[in-house]
């Protein structure tokens, strides 16, 4: 049974959190509320999240400052952040969001279907990443404990091939997504989203290649989610 991904919703207005929950409930994932930047950072200390939906305008620590703290932490720096804002001060304001580490920047009121579709991309990537890491851990155990066993080696080789095939499928999906984004939009979100996907998939492929026989990578560790 695949464990549900956690999505962090950060907004100081309860009605906005309720609206986000209504929109994203169809994804059937675990939705976690935070009513301030400080509360979001506290949640990130103990839980892993597939994506963060972060309101820009909040009293005290605003969205930009919260994102800066998230990106400074080793544990959380690679978690995708989607900024939500009710204001639009032009390109400078938007690019400030990308500079703070956002993978997307959505102005309110937003299209519920579009928001749900964008969040689902990062949930799927997170889920695939977790599955690959778990299978890679099993593969390492087989390689380390069954190296002298012919059957164990064959089983490990088979699992490695399956992992590689699964990752190839994710890489193909990401390539198709990037192409679709490029056709549908010309804003900076395309560049940021494509770069994030490419960086994470490249890390996964590199770690998986290190497990190949003769690569000296039986202790390789697949990168953390994000």
From TrEMBL:
Against Gene3D superfamilies, the record matches this protein to: 3.40.50.2300
Signal sequence span is none
- Boundaries of every Response regulatory domain copy: 6-123
Annotated coiled-coil positions are: 153-187
For this UniProt record, give its keywords in alphabetical order, as a comma-separated list: Coiled coil, Phosphoprotein
Which InterPro entries does the entry mention?
Bact_response_regulator (IPR050595), CheY-like_superfamily (IPR011006), Sig_transdc_resp-reg_receiver (IPR001789)
Per the record, residues carrying 4-aspartylphosphate are: 55
| Source species, domain of life | Bacteria
Q: What is this protein called?
A: Response regulator
